[in-house]
Amino acid sequence: MIKRDLGGTQMRGNFNTPVEKKLGQILVERNTMSPRHLQMALERQNQQEGQYKYIGEILLEMGIPQEKINEALDAYDKRKSIGQILLDLRVITAEELKKALEEQAVFAKRGIRKPLAKLLLEMGYINYDQYMGGLSKHFNMPIISLNGFFLSSKLQRAIGEEYAQKHQVVVLENSATKIRLALSEPSAFFMDELRRIFPPGKKVEFYLAHPFEMDYCLRQKSDPFAVSHYR
Known about the structure:
Blueprint: E1 2-4, E2 10-12, E3 17-18, H1 23-29, H2 35-47, H3 55-61, H4 66-75, H5 82-88, H6 94-109, H7 116-122, H8 128-139, E4 143-144, H9 153-156, H10 161-167, E5 169-174, E6 178-183, H11 188-195, E7 203-209, H12 211-219
Parallel strand pairs: 4-7, 6-7
Antiparallel strand pairs: 1-2, 2-3, 5-6
């Protein structure tokens, strides 16, 4: 039997064990979106064809702010690990994941931090498209192409041109209220560091770019008159 307490938490039997909340419910309770939006997202998820999408990806496509989705994922420990995502996508096996985790532990003992996705790539268990797809789902970051993008010195100065070169960041757009950044090797720590560069209230949106395209783009001479087409 399922009971519900006054706070809206479901309880099973007489053990008062709360049922685990899902991302959609959390976002509704935080007034990030309405129950109707959640219903629409669930319907879209059920009707999708091809590669499976998590509810966070669908909500992002529907216009729910990336920052709000990620805040909820982290606050409630809902973010899927990159290993679990690649298992869900059926691009690696449990045995391959086990071997990669063991290898990651060996690197850690040497004081070397090796991201799991990059390690799986280096071990030949996934290709670059699968690597990008896994990161995109893990961080809720849309994948973009930098082919044909003209690097702008004015935009790059928003975070510092040397900093951008060192950390592989391309500024796609910058306004008083929002900045859009392309990264090729995202991490929770690095993204948090970037957010702290800007004043509170300024929206920071992240996009995932292919490392080869990022490297090529940053090697080109900046065009001071370039205008972003990512609007």
